[in-house]
Amino acid sequence: MSLSVCLIVKNEEAVIGRCLNCVCKFADEIIVVDTGSTDNTVEEVKKFTDNVCFFRWCDDFSAARNFSLEKAEGDYVMWLDADDVITDENCKKIRELVEGADFDMAFLPYAAAFDGDAPTFVYYRERIFKRSKNYRFSGAVHEAVAPEGNIVYSDAAVYHKKVKNGEPLRNLSIYQSRIAKGICLDERSEFYYGRELLYAGMYRESIAVLEHFLNGGGWAENKLEACLNVYRAYTAIGDKKNAMDYLLRSFLFAPPRSEACCILGEYFAEQNDVKSAIYWYQNALSCNNAEKEGGFVNLDYGGFIPDIQLCVLYDKLGDFERANAYNEAAGAIKPHSESYLYNKRYFENKLKKEV
């Protein structure tokens, strides 16, 4: 089976070569759609492929993505961003996935934040599609392809490695422009619009949009994330009661996730209710965060954060061996963490004195 890899780009001369150097290891065809670069992006792309097309930007990411898909000729198509990176091991996995493939859509992990080289924020994205199924993106911003057909999941991760800051209000401006034109946002777009308002520090506006979203239809994973975003917005304006109400409301859409458990652990720790705090942090370690159901997963909440907090809490109870064990678990995740190293020295002295 052949694979076409499609990208849309604009002013990405600093990273496009890095990306395409990975892509050429597994792609049979590379298609790059430029949406108005004024730097040397196109020249860099032509070092890897002559298949460069041009698309007049219209504030619609789906339109540009779909234009790129229409140019593909492979049995399967894969989309990437210019600042994505794929390790040699994962390049090999992608090639093996496509060879002899019998699926309609493949979801791959997308790592979007890192602590050093270790991913800390990961979620699955629909990444590779059978071209004959004619899948298309929808959504002017945060574009996506609706999952359907024979779906498989691969562990071949794509790393989103930015080297420059994007335009912070770009997505928000696109949403606001569409609203000003009288375009009604669908449920998914309303969720993302509320999130963009949160990122822009427009907390009360974000609350209003997300509360409206929560009172309508929509995907359960987006509902859960909306509750956490409303929690963050209310916390930012100092309304702790409403913040906690929305945190707990997230439990109505899915079992508790690690982040919510850690927030509750912190809440009880602040109340000096050590046993309740321990309960919630331990739950954070055992949560099913439903990565393959599309949830956004900050890995720290399911590992390092509860481990380091349980270390502190058991130390308060005088259970130094258990506290040390949790600190070592945290250190196994982040061996260079200052918190871990400080605690390690502390327990070495403490346990020596006890002996």
What is the fold's blueprint, element by element?
Blueprint: E1 3-9, H1 16-23, E2 29-34, H2 41-45, E3 52-54, H3 61-70, E4 76-80, E5 84-85, H4 88-98, E6 105-115, E7 118-130, E8 151-153, E9 158-160, H5 170-180, H6 187-199, H7 203-214, H8 220-236, H9 240-249, H10 258-270, H11 274-286, E10 297-298, H12 304-316, H13 320-333, H14 338-354
Parallel strand pairs: 1-2, 1-4, 2-3, 6-8, 6-9
Antiparallel strand pairs: 4-7, 5-9, 6-7, 7-10
Helix pairs in contact: 6-7, 6-8, 7-8, 8-9, 10-11, 11-12, 12-13, 13-14
Briefly summarize what is shown.
The chain is an alpha/beta fold and 355 residues long. The protein is 47% helix and 15% strand.
How is this structure best described in words?
With 355 residues, the chain is an alpha/beta fold. The chain is built from 14 helices and ten strands. Strands 1, 2, 3, 4, 5, 6, 7, 8, 9 and 10 form a ten-stranded mixed sheet that branches. The model has no long low-confidence stretch (mean pLDDT 95).
